[in-house]
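We modelled the chain as a single entity of 263 amino acids. Its sequence is:
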Amino acid sequence: MCSTVRFLGLLVALFTLIFNISCLVMPAQQSTRPKVSIFWAAWEPDLHGVDYLTPALPYSAKVRGVKLLRWAAGKSLAANFSADRFVEYWVRALDLCPTGIAIDEFGSSDPHIDAMMADALRRVRLERPSGFIVIWNAGSMTELLKPAYEAADLIILESYTSTKVWLDQFFGLRLKRARDMGFASKTMLAIAINDDRVARGSVLPSAGWANSADIIEAQLNWIAKKALNSPGVAFYASGASPSMLLKANQLWMQSAFRNTILP
């Protein structure tokens, strides 16, 4: 009887040893984490792979599972709004659009406004803990806005540029700031397309517009190589022509960044 017990004990020990060794030598299982795309644009029926859409024109129906983000104003209201009014306004926007809101131009060069808006969004999160909140960050990420970054689900950097070659300095420094503040996992870059408005003369040509396919592709390639931990990419394209919007969408669909293999 004792010999049988000892044999069973040795057998269990052997299997345990084999299992532990296999865990050491087997590579970790990998999984695919899809990246998120947010388009601020007029809806085009041929758009694909769009996760969230802030419509540039009135639009209410769900198409292909696209989730709508209701536009909400940010610093443009700050001169006339108190923190209480911002809370009421943003909570109301969330109640009107259960899939979420996109707050435009969050933050300013005024420390008082930054502190007020950040505190207001912190209170909105307390009132609507399950609400989906995206903020389009205007300017630099600051410590005064930290409560807002903690409250938001996604932070979009209005990092608009037409360059293809200085992206380490332009995109890289902004993402480094997000990492240093502890928000890299919820921060994404934005690419701005405004070719239609420029062509019609309603806006001036700017160093901020990525108004050609090669610029958009170069910026997506940089993000794919240097921003793997970013949750996705945003496209500010309310002033894009239909052809350029569809081209940007095509480049997004082809981008290596859309799906990232993580250990």
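As a brief sanity check on the tokenised model: The first helix runs from residue 2 to 25. Residues 11-31 have pLDDT under 50 and may be disordered.
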